[in-house]
Amino acid sequence: MKLIPCPFCGGNDISIYGASVYWAECENCFCEGPVSNSEAEAIKAWNTRAEDSKMRENKFKVWCKNKNEWEEHPVLMGQNGQLFHIEKYRDPIPLKPDTHIPVFFTGLKDKKSVEIFEGDVLVDSMPKKYQSIYEVLWSDMEARYYAVDRQTRAFPLCNIHRITEVAGNIYENNDISPENRPKSNL
Question: What residues does each domain of the chain span?
Answer without folding.
Answer: 7-48, 60-101
